[in-house]
Amino acid sequence: MTDDMTAFFTLHRDLPREGPGEPADVAWAVEQVDLPARAEIADVACGPGSDIGALRAALPQGHVTAFDTTAHFVDTARGRFVADANVTLLRADMAVIANEYDLIWCAGAVYFLGVTKALTRWRKSLREGGVVAFSEPCWLTDNPSEAARAQWAEYPAMSDGAGIEERVEAAGYEVIATRLLSDAAWENYYAPLEARIERLRPGAEGPLAEVLDATEAEIACWREHRDEFGYLLTVARPK
């Protein structure tokens, strides 16, 4: 592992979330479709398992198969749900989903593959009537500030909501509903990060100090420019 990756995981290890979100997002997504009571659910790129509890609450008779490529995220999630027979944790690649599901949930990670590529790959893993629910960063203005553009410079595919819908349709899906993630969803991610930064800052140097600085700048950018960008939660199904 490189020094940069070590620094990143020093900051992120054992955080409750790895991206913006809240239980209400999961509940809303499930309400948009008619899923079977004993639904099979995939939580793709589940991180430390932050949405597994909400998925279980929304579909209490369902089964959640959650997976991530990062071993310590999977271990953390296993520790949280070790006693739940309706949760299976796997270390696996989001690009290759085995089995079939009624709901594929992916919070804030579709951009690793791209919306169209992800939905195209996952289609074979959807049961009849199944849906994909995913959150994706998007612009909320036609003229974002230089600071906001710089923050998202490494994701040139970022678009507005209409652009996300175009990428969904390019995969042969239709959009059922969309919901912009709330400020509370962002604070659920950033508040624990800020607390961790405060604990790590004394004596931090080299790659760790750089990661702390970059994360503080990211948080400050969102607080100042939250009206310019956000995460759009989209529920989509194959046509």
From TrEMBL:
Residues passing through the membrane, by range: none
GO molecular function: methyltransferase activity
Entry keyword set: Methyltransferase, Transferase
InterPro entries xrefs: Methyltransf_25, SAM-dependent_MTases_sf
Domain of life (superkingdom): Bacteria
CDD domains named among the record's database cross-references: AdoMet_MTases
GO biological process, one term: methylation
Entry-linked SUPFAM superfamilies: S-adenosyl-L-methionine-dependent methyltransferases (SSF53335)
Pfam family, one: Methyltransf_25
Gene3D superfamilies assigned to the protein according to its UniProt record, in alphabetical order: Vaccinia Virus protein VP39
PANTHER family xrefs: TRANS-ACONITATE 2-METHYLTRANSFERASE, TRANS-ACONITATE 2-METHYLTRANSFERASE-RELATED
Protein name as catalogued: Methyltransferase domain-containing protein
Naturally occurring in which organism (per UniProt): Sulfitobacter delicatus
